[in-house]
Amino acid sequence: MISFESDYIEGAHPKILEQLMQTNMEQLSGYGNDIYSTRAKEKIKQACKKKDADVAFLVGGTQTNQIIIDTVLKPYEGVIAASTGHVSTHEAGAIEYTGHKVLCIPEHEGKIKAPELKAFIDDFYNDGNHEHEVFPGMVYISQPTEYGTIYTKKELEDIYETCSTYSIPLYIDGARLGYALMSSKSDTSISDIASLCDIFYIGGTKVGALCGEAVVFTHNNKPAHFETLTKQHGALLAKGRLLGIQFDVLFTDDLYFTISRNAIEMADMLKQAFLARGYQFYLDSPTNQQFIILENKKMEELKQEVGFSFWQKFDNTHTVVRFATSWATTRENIEKLIALL
Fold it and tell me: Please, which residues have CB within 8 angstroms of residue 113's CB and are 6 or more apart in sequence?
């Protein structure tokens, strides 16, 4: 059995495991106040070219989204997101659980458009009853999106300009950020991302780490008493070293970007294999997630030999499924898939 079910089905990069073992018996301060966490934060700030940035480490993606949104928003504010955004669909109401509504706007292959964002905010303030409604207090996007598509630099500039006009922070979910940056279709660097939003996070869970996400507040804008608020959410890791060590390794010698490139190369191989055999794609994704339309009977047959994810019903006889590659996907497993096809 081979699997392309997700990009976090493997453990961690061997260099991370080696460093965790080598530092295992060191006595280090807790809650991220250790030398490795400090070093990792500095490396991330250097990569982002943001000396005045603040970096914080959290354990997982849903946890990160919930804490960032809840600590930045005022009690009467909600977060604007694409209708297909992760916070809108696959987070079990985690945002609403904190008392903040997700305000959905149309999506276009997973992306939002600046003119529609502006129209949504204008419509809110032009409504004479807006004091009785949930205020738009933040904009959430994913890079890459939940459909593997990526925002161009121009699209990010336009969205950020709109956010700035209304003094609304832009937050970028970077759970798979490495895969967006290493795509051949990308025209942005990590420093571009840092300059075109107020907050973003660098995903580790899906890109080589056992767990962990690095939140970057791009211009000394971390919420006051963020550590206290994180603890109130039950999310302050006592052994913060576990996160700091992992990101210290990932941001040494460009490891984060090197291993991300592997996912893109393997996804391209997978994509060509399906195309060569006449399979239809739901959309053209330039990153590690590939969405394929399978005839239901063929899907059940393939499911016996290979793991992949259900995405959505296409019609009564076809289903959209997702194949995801990762930093650890091997050429051998791609070749096995090709043989099965």
Answer: 106, 155
| Residue 113 DSSP class | -
- CA–CA distances in Å: residue 9 to residues 37, 115, 162, 235, 308: 25, 38, 37, 23, 11
**166 sits in which H/E element:** none
- For 116-172, how does the pLDDT look when each residue is reduced to its tens digit (9 = 90+)? 999 999 999 999 999 999 999 999 999 999 999 999 999 999 999 999 999 999 999
Pick from 122, 140, 109: nearest CA to 281? 109
Instruction: Categorize the per-residue pLDDT at 3 as very low, low, confident or very high, splitting at 50, 70 and 90.
Output: very high
Q: Which residues share a beta bridge with 290?
A: 323
- The predicted-structure confidence for 46-97, as pLDDT tens digits, reads as follows 999 999 999 999 999 999 999 999 999 999 999 999 999 999 999 999 999 9
Question: pLDDT for 99-117, tens place per residue?
Answer: 999 999 999 999 999 999 9
Rounded CA separation 255/259 (Å): 6
| Dist. CA 144–CA 157, nearest whole Å | 16
Spatial distance between the Cα atoms of 214 and 205, rounded to a whole number of angstroms: 10
Q: Kindly compute the dihedral angle of the four CA atoms of residues 21, 26, 28, 34, in this order, to the nearest 10 degrees.
A: -60
